[in-house]
Amino acid sequence: MRRVVVTGLGLVTPLGADVETVWANLLAGKSGAGPITRFDASNQKCQIACEVKPADHPYGFDASRRVDHKIQRQVDPFIVYGIDAAGQALEDAGLVDMDDDLKARTGCSIGSGIGGLPGIESESIVLHEKGPGRVSPHFVHGRLINLISGQVSIKYGLMGPNHAVVTACSTGAHSIGDAARMIKDGDADVMLAGGAESTINPLGVAGFAQARALNCSYNDRPEQASRPYDKDRDGFVMGEGAGVVVLEEYEHAKARGAKIYAEVVGYGLSGDAYHVTAPHPEGKGAELAMRMALRKAGLEPGDIDYVNAHGTSTMADTIELGAVKRVLGDDLSGASMSSTKSAIGHLLGGAGAVEAIFCILAIRDQIVPPTLNLDNPDEGTEGVDLVPHVAKKRQVRAVLNNSFGFGGTNASLIMKAV
Amino acid sequence: MSDTADRVKKIVVEHLGVEADKVTEDASFIDDLGADSLDIVELVMAFEEEFGVEIPDDAAEKISTVSDAIKYIDENKG
Q1: What range(s) does the Ketosynthase family 3 (KS3) domain occupy (chain A) (predicted)?
Q2: Average of pLDDT values for A296-302?
Q3: Catalytic residue among B31, B36, B57, B58
Q4: What residue of B is the nearest CA neighbor of A68?
Q5: Domain B1-77: top CATH class
Q6: Are B17 and A68 inside 8 Å of each other by CB?
Q7: What average pLDDT score do residues A269-273 get?
Q8: Which SS3 state, helix, strand or coil, does residue A230 take?
Q9: Where are the beta strands (DSSP E) in A92-165?
Q10: What is the average pLDDT across A278-303?
Q11: What is the pLDDT of residue A94?
């Protein structure tokens, strides 16, 4: 059976625009949250977000590093973030210069939950104010979700499978899981896989606030707003950015002497069949996805050392915790579990991929990132190590990464040290 | 250099992300400045906005160099 390993990582997040900076900031307990600066949010219920910082910030993002000026102008930010993260991952894997055979065996599976909402909003205003003749000719392909995979394939000449998942906040995890299967099935030897999002625009913030999903009560204390498992949690904080990994067939990676971070051993998927925004109250769908991933991985609950929870800082946190307890055991069988959304917010379609990278780095460095703002743990958390406030050195052999999305879509990934 | 030429070149530099010294009057948008057909549609829209002229599709199709654009605008602006 073909095995799939991770050989490259790329991140653009509110805590930095390269893997090592993000990881150092995350382990140091920094928060990426702040007042919204991207637009005037004074009339919004929610006025805070975890924004990717501008290029002049100490850990800001410089779009011109890997994306042509012309493309930056034509596409939505989620595509720019995705292209940059994919470039980082390829560089990290040592795969920038590939021969034509390998390019034909290398594909892209980089999705997004929502896609180009800022551009849809602004171009809709152009349509109404100036008429159809002023709508940009780049409007459609600058907003489409599969255009990260499209742009990356064009930039690097990758002619393998070109795929893009759209499963709301499970997108990043499904993208990696699906891509791993493509490698297992022999469709490709190398896949760039991940997700990106950027919807910190008036319509995006208003939409999520109206759906009662966003935290709207910490506008004066943005860094304390994302507080998974805490009694005073009150909705998620929107983040933005991208995470992309290079997945590679194990023998291929070994033969070229690639640095191998971890192996993707388990992937589970399910649907809640319950409600468009609320998770099943008993977490049945989440449980099914986790059990499937464990079974595929051939692992026992006690083998999992770290769970990167979906943990959005909403009422759903305790539902997920209940499901994890049923799968792993009430004490999580020795595993630590944290939500890094406490630091970087919820990257929506990017979340699963960014968090998978945190899981991989936890294996590499034998340390697990903290859950910030966990001052008063909610009922049901007793006896569970939720890694409050500070990162924790510990053994990390195998990790479980959960992602759940609107529509009741669930994905669980399990990765382990090779 | 005319005022029209200055403003046209500025738009081309901004939209195509090319060095200003490459935007000579005989430069072809596609062959010399890396544009594709959709970039030209966008440039034409930007010229229309900047100069308050209307450039119909059949005229736009004949604009392939920087000087074609300058000439059309000078002949048609109000």
Answers
A1: 1-417
A2: 97
A3: B36
A4: B17
A5: mainly alpha
A6: yes
A7: 98
A8: strand
A9: 106-111, 162-163
A10: 97
A11: 98
Give the single-character DSSP code of A289. H
A70–B38 CB contact, under 8 Å: no
Structure tokens given for A336: 């630590």
CB contact under 8 A, B45 and A133: yes
**CA of A22, closest CA in chain B: separation in Å?**
30
CA separation for the pair A153, A227 (Å, rounded): 38
CB of A408 closer than 8 Å to CB of A272? yes
pTM for the whole thing?
0.96
Task: Give the confidence band of A276 by pLDDT, cuts at 50, 70, 90.
Answer: very high
β-strand pairing of A398-405 with A304-308: parallel
pLDDT at B77 (0 to 100): 83
Chain B hits for A73, Cβ within 8 Å: 14-15, 17
* B8-29 average pLDDT score: 95
Q: Give backbone dihedrals phi and psi of A162, rounded to 5 degrees, phi first.
A: -120, 105
- pLDDT, residue A114, reads 98
Q: Give every CB contact of residue A270 below 8 A, 6+ residues apart in sequence.
A: A285, A286, A288, A289, A292, A410
Q: For the beta carbon of residue A347, count every other beta carbon within 10 angstroms.
A: 34
Query: Domain spans of chain B?
Result: 1-77
Q: Is the ipTM of this complex over 0.85?
A: yes
CB contact under 8 A, B17 and A73: yes
- Cα separation, A379 vs A385, whole angstroms: 14
Both tokens of residue A182?
């493509």
Work out the pLDDT band at A233, boundaries 50, 70, 90: very high
Q: Is B6 a catalytic residue?
A: no
Tokens describing residue A333: 């069988």
Show residues of chain B in contact with A134, CB under 8 Å. Answer: 45, 49
